[in-house]
Amino acid sequence: MKGSTLAGTLPETKRESKRKWSRIARNWQLYLLILPVVAYYILFHYVPMYGIQIAFKDFIATKGITGSPWVGTEHFERFFHSYFFWRLIKNTLGLGLYSLAVGFPIPIILALLMNEAKSAKFKKFVQTVTYAPHFLSTVVVVGMMMIFLSPRYGMVNHLITMFGGHPINFMAEPGWFKSLYVFSDVWQTMGWSSIIYLAALAGIDNQLHEAARVDGAGRLRRIWHINLPGIRPTIIILLILNIGSIMGIGFEKVLLMQNNLNMETSDIISTYVYRAGIQGAEYSFSAAIGLFNSVINFILLISVNWVTKRMSDTSLW
Amino acid sequence: MLLESRGDRVFNALIYLILGLVTIIVLYPLVFVFSASISDPQTVLRGEMLLWPKGINLNSYAKIFQNKDILSGFSNTLLYTSVGTLINLGMTIIAAYPLSRKDFVGRNWFMGLFVFTMFFGGGLIPTYLLIKDLGMLNSFWVMIIPNAVSIWNIIIMRTFFQQSIPYELQEAATIDGCSNIQILNRIILPLSMPIIAVMILFYAVGHWNAFFNALLYLSDKDKFPLQLILREILIQGQTSDMVKMSTESAIKQQREVEGIKYAVLVVANIPVLILYPFLQRYFVKGVMIGAIKG
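Predict the joint structure of the above. Result:
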């Protein structure tokens, strides 16, 4: 019996692999098509991963990545003991968590509200307006902020003085930096981020609402017991993605908002890597800091994914 | 329909109130910038202009169109955007089409190769050194090749191919003797115009707004895209070129500078402003397809 089943499976797998190869041969054009994209990913994404090793080396331009001498974890130790270390960690994590805490729930609330608005025309108008800032560039948004918040000419300070207050030099105060960053981001992205939730809400079976209404559930109750659970998988996926990028928080925008006066709170790991690495040409040292950052980020992503998989069966992979 | 209770009506009113407020908060700065750009700078700086333009004055625009940095930035950006978007689109299609096919052996493997880069990368410095070794520093192509394709958009397009074009259609074409390339050209692409429009929009906006690669890799001012010029004017306050010609007083110069900033903001977003109403229905569709995820 045993022998016969074995004999039965062997040719089967053989046939299968033969079929696989014939399928590959038949679709050779598809492999040719995807080849440039594979080449692109290998060259521009995997080769830099290979280049990470300079974090453990003393990079000398003339010797190249492979030829430079190994120094072990010297650069990491220098970073951990540097004056900047705790400041950078505190700022990076602080900014990341602050934007997550404020920026994550707002689009969900916005989508729930828009979903409840009965007038299609009004809804459409709100959407058209709230999506628009998504298309502005970071430079433009930071530029607008600086104009509006300018201590002498900005309209915000005009308002403050109108009500008898003293003008505030927002962009130069370290204490204002994080809030300005987070709330300008909310302004720019809340509409756009709500699209996904709106799509998920549209997919909820209307019969659930009908049934709940018959049972006497009010609107708040139905939002709480039907709409929110209905979009839970979407919320979790986006939460994982957001947490996975806490350490990679908006580098471009921080760099643009940064100046010597607010450095105390605006200096984050990625801007430090830029300053030390590109401007200061300390390639190995800043590659080490960059690696430290990506590893923490990656670990965060994997652990959140693991936790949510355990708790709710929803995960990225 | 069940009758609305009083609580429901209060609830409705509250929703409209909150949404109305949100809309005003988002809209106000945008309208303000536009109004300020065509107003007399003096009234704007004094805080007299609150919503509608006051003392119409187009001098700031005139100043912009005499500025050679802005003009060259504008035309560079147009070039980067058109060439870049074309390449993006081609790369996305040739990746998404094979990945959408059930009979494409190894598609999970390819997908994994691409998706992994979303979560882990070499980082700024190794990438910079690569670009340097490739001799791409300060070249036209550095604005295009390093961002040749985006994995998000590949996923969106692949999902569209899978869900909106029946697989049977492709099978039938194969039986009729179509090669894979012919299927792509004659069947898939003609049926994919909505998603192609979405891709063009996403990629073009990305190129239009890109500034970081330029900051890192470009050193010649005549290659700078508009966003880098904007950064100089808006954030670093380098507007001296534009006003130094006038022999006016310092206060008047300052006024001109502020006026120019508003006008520059408007000019930088004109293409998006013009296209926005036409493209809106497409991009919402695009995000939704992306959200479903295969």
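Chain A touches chain B through 91 residues (CB under 8 Å).
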